[in-house]
Amino acid sequence: MKVYKLERPEFLRNWLSEEREVFQPVMDATGNGSWQPIAHGAVEEFDDELRPLMSPKDFFFSEREDLFRFEAGAENPTFKPIIPRIEKRVLFGVKACDLKAIAYQDKHFATDPNYQARRRQTLLVGIDCHAPCEGGFCPTVDAGPTVRDGTADLVLIPMPSVAGEQAGWWLGCNSQAGEHAIWGMNLKLAEEGWDYWRKLTEKRAKASFPNDTQLLNGIRRLNARAIPDELWDKLGIQCLSCSGCTMVCPSCSCYAVEDIKTPTGYVRERFWDSCLMEGFQKEASGANPTQASGKRVQRFWFHKFSDDIASRMDDSYGCVGCGRCEVTCPGSIGVHSVMEAIANA
Amino acid sequence: MHKQQLIDHTPALMRIVDKYQDGEDLCHFTFAPFNEGESLNKDEMPDLCNINKVQPGQFMMLTIPNAGEAAFTYASMPDENGHFHCLIRKIGELTDALFELEPGAMVGGRGPMGQGWPNLKDKKVLVIAGGCGLAPVAAKVDALIEASAEPVVYFSARNEAMLVMKKERERWQEQCKLYEAVDDCSGASKSYLAGRQLADNLDQIIQDDGPFDHVITCGPEGMMLAVCRIMEGKGFPADHIWLSLERRMHCGVGLCGHCYMADHLVCVDGPTYRWDQLGELVVKEKAIRAPESPLDMGHAASNCGEEKEGCDGNGGCGCR
Ligand SMILES: Cc1cc2nc3c(=O)[nH]c(=O)nc-3n(C[C@H](O)[C@H](O)[C@H](O)COP(=O)(O)OP(=O)(O)OC[C@H]3O[C@@H](n4cnc5c(N)ncnc54)[C@H](O)[C@@H]3O)c2cc1C
Ligand code: SF4
Ligand code: SF4
Ligand code: FES
Question: Which residues of A touch B6 (CB under 8 A)?
Answer without folding.
Answer: 111-113, 116
